[in-house]
Request: fold
Amino acid sequence: MTGTQIRSGLDGVIAAETRISRVDGDAGELVIAGYPLEAIADRATFEEMVYLLWHDALPTPGQLKMFAKELTTGRDISTSSIALLAAAAKYRTPAMEALLMAAATLHLQTPPVAENAMAHALSIVGHLPTLTAAYSRLLDGRDPIAARSDLGHAANYLYMLTGWDPTAEKIRALETYLCTVADHGLNASTFTARVIVSTRSDMLSAVVGAIGALKGPLHGGAPGPALEMILEIGSADRAESYLRRALERGERLMGFGHRIYKVRDPRADVLAEAASRLYQTEGDRQFYALALEIERIALRLLDEYKPGRRLHTNVEFYTALLLHGVGLPPHLFAPTFTLGRVAGWIAHCMEQQRIDRLIRPQSLYVGARDRRWVPVEERE
Ligand code: ACO
Reply:
């Protein structure tokens, strides 16, 4: 393999054909199954988005009704899942780790993929919000709330967190968020999911692996820290000195920069609009104004400290703003990202299953050669 070029982050490597989404980093565009993100994210319900990703077509009213109903049937979690979440809450396990462990317990109740792949997939998407909401309540020392079948996916999640019927504005904001993050090309967690099903493993195993990939701070773990940064700064007059100090220490500003988007992150634009609408009726307007001011200063300073790196606001900054406005605590940001992205993971699993080709790249060995075995007692 002399002369082989290694792309250590797999940058620019095309590893799959997909009909699910197209990410154009140079143009700053995201297309979901043929629809520009801006045309669909704020209009579709989450159920419609899942249907689109899994069927490559928007549902008719009848199809949507049936699909949404099927999604409600797999919401109740088992006592084993609750016991595991309760144990995790006792140790104050981070929410993504608790979700990762609890998602694996769905093997106890998810219909086997071999019998009915669609029921298996619906059951995963239906159960994850219940696991997330139950854990959040257990962390607060409260009992989980049972799912309601008369509410849509997003509304039911908010209901299970609080026990209150959410406002229409909060439901729409959350639907927009879930639709916005539902899929995004061959990102790290989606690639993980595809690798797992390419071995003919099942979709739930793929989702568990994908959660492990998503929870890293360079992927789905950024919005919590982005919100913390805004809260820590606290007032506009402290923003510049705070951000300068961070950059001088060589730290990364959470919510800025992207591997692919070097012009704009279209998801950030969609969420920015959704946040602007939400904060007109809900949430803390002063906080919202402060966040916008911090963004303005951060972009100026990133340009000063990292010229030419083309660092823009990414989806995670506006995720922090929007989900904070919806009333979610920061520890639920990454799990809530999971509830949206699971739709894309499963769509990719279905696509990969149709291709049925094991993903197995190669590595270039650069270690020692021709070493001789030395018995342990002779080693120094
Ligand atoms: N703050 C400060 N500097 C930054 C930032 C940032 N947020 N992002 C990149 N840089 C700098 C790097 O330090 C590097 O500087 P150098 O050339 O002086 O070494 C340069 O910009 C290029 O950075 P890379 O790491 O090569 O860029 P990459 O494309 O690999 O990184 C990433 C993308 C990981 C998202 C990065 O921008 C980052 O760490 N951002 C902060 C974390 C974040 O917001 N993550 C969420 C991403 S969105 C998502 O995954 C859904």
About this structure: Residues 218-220, 222, 252-259, 302, 306, 309, 311, 314-316 surround acetyl coenzyme *A (CB under 6 Å).
